[in-house]
Design goal:
With 406 residues, this protein is mainly α. It has helices at residues 2-16, 29-54, 56-59, 70-75, 81-91, 104-116, 120-146, 149-160, 174-189, 193-206, 214-223, 244-257, 262-265, 279-291, 296-319, 330-344, 357-360, 366-372, 378-400. The longest helix has 27 residues, at 120-146. It is globular. InterPro entries: PIG-V/Gpi18.
């Protein structure tokens, strides 16, 4: 008992010593963040597992005696873009169309497949689910340090219940990209420029939108120097690491296909064309109205436009009026508006102009920080959980049963 008491007193002295390394691991902020996130992460995966098991009720006739194996249930998650990433991982960029998918995620799948010998889908799903956990931890800690713990808890919960959050669980780039974006932004807010630039570089290798992290980088760099040009130091050159991601991939595209902008031109295969930002929203409403609001075309377009306008409304609230984030957090809004406008500028010129955009909304994490400010209003919280939860169930079930959800 004496030895134990002496040890505890010694640890307390070390903890109170300025600059000393904290020795009590339970007090480590990241351990604490992990402990806060794990129950939510576990509960989400239990819900995904239950729904994956029950999805056979939607694909089999009543009283059917057949039953799938566990492997069949897992393969329900291997849909749409998963196939593109698997083929790029195994075959490479054999044609221009594949350059629409940036290289980091397929490279990680290829490496994981080589090391483990597993199917590329399983490797990709593992990477995404690991990135999902990390991004929730980083988001929690970011919001906790910039706001408070209650808002941090609400933010990760609202993001996790967004209608397209199930894409975090499969071999898509939603989780890896947002994870790298948050890692970059977290270090950016703390003035760790080289780390911020490095993670932004990897985000840019995951998706082209990552290059726009250079904009909040520039703002934060100058803000933390009171916008004094004389305060600029040599570490400003770290900024130029960020666009290297797109430059390197452009170089690869030039060598392979003779077109440095092949990844941009490849978007035409999906009928994505540069347009005014409101084109997709107006066209989606128009198609829904012409085809009937309660038909397949109407409901799908309304779900897409609903997710997009919901995020737009949140960004407006965060930019103006009593809910604005404030000058100290302008970098959040720069990132959010840039990502938002970037995806809206390239809608699909078809009868579903906003396809894929509901899952792109997941990247705009500041919107969920703004939404978390309304957590204290029971009416808003209850309606979001119920409506978003229903849409999450519907869209995820559609995806698992092979319907058209991209």
């Amino acid at each position: 008992m004496v030895i134990e008491q002496i040890s505890i007193e010694k640890l307390r002295k070390l903890d109170n010593t300025p600059g000393a390394t904290r020795t009590r691991w339970l007090d480590n902020k990241w351990i604490y963040a992990v402990k806060q996130i794990f129950p939510l992460y576990f509960a989400l995966h239990m819900a995904l597992l239950v729904l994956s098991c029950c999805v056979v009720l939607f694909v089999q006739s009543d009283f059917s005696a057949t039953h799938p194996h566990l492997q069949d249930l897992l393969l329900y998650w291997s849909r749409k873009d998963v196939g593109w990433y698997r083929r790029i991982a195994t075959e490479g960029y054999t044609d221009v169309q594949r350059t629409a998918f940036f290289p980091l995620f397929p490279l990680l799948i290829r490496l994981g497949t080589y090391v483990t010998g597993l199917n590329g889908f399983y490797v990709g799903a593992f990477i995404s689910n690991a990135a999902w956990f990390v991004l929730l931890v980083i988001l929690f800690q970011l919001v906790k340090e910039d706001y408070d713990e209650k808002r941090a808890q609400a933010t990760v919960l609202y993001l996790s219940l967004f209608p397209t959050s199930f894409f975090f669980a499969t071999a898509y780039t939603e989780a890896p990209f947002l994870c790298l974006t948050l890692l970059s932004f977290y270090h950016l807010r703390r003035g760790r420029w080289w780390l911020a630039a490095l993670f932004a570089f990897f985000a840019g290798l995951t998706r082209s939108a990552g290059v726009f992290l250079a904009l909040p980088f520039c703002y934060e760099y100058m803000r933390q120097r009171q916008f004094n040009v004389r305060a600029i130091r040599l570490d400003v050159i770290s900024l130029f690491i960020i666009p290297l991601s797109v430059i390197l991939f452009a170089g690869y595209c030039y060598i392979s296909f003779g077109d440095p902008l092949a990844f941009s031109h490849a978007q035409t295969f999906w009928s994505r064309v540069l347009s005014v930002p409101w084109y997709g929203i107006v066209e989606a409403f128009s198609v829904a109205w012409r085809s009937g609001l309660l038909g397949f075309w109407g409901i799908r377009n309304l779900m897409d436009v609903g997710c997009v306008l919901f995020v737009f409304f949140l960004l407006l609230l965060g930019s103006f009026g009593p809910w604005r984030l404030g000058k100290e957090r302008t970098s959040y809004l720069i990132l959010a508006w840039t990502f938002y406008l970037f995806v809206l500028l390239v809608p699909v010129h078809s009868d579903f102009p906003l396809q894929s955009m509901p899952r792109f909304m997941l990247e705009i994490f500041p919107a969920f920080i703004i939404l978390a400010d309304f957590d204290k209003v029971p009416f808003i919280r209850l309606n979001y959980f119920l409506v978003s939860g229903v849409l999450l169930f519907v869209m995820m079930t559609q995806f698992l049963t092979g319907h058209w959800i991209v």
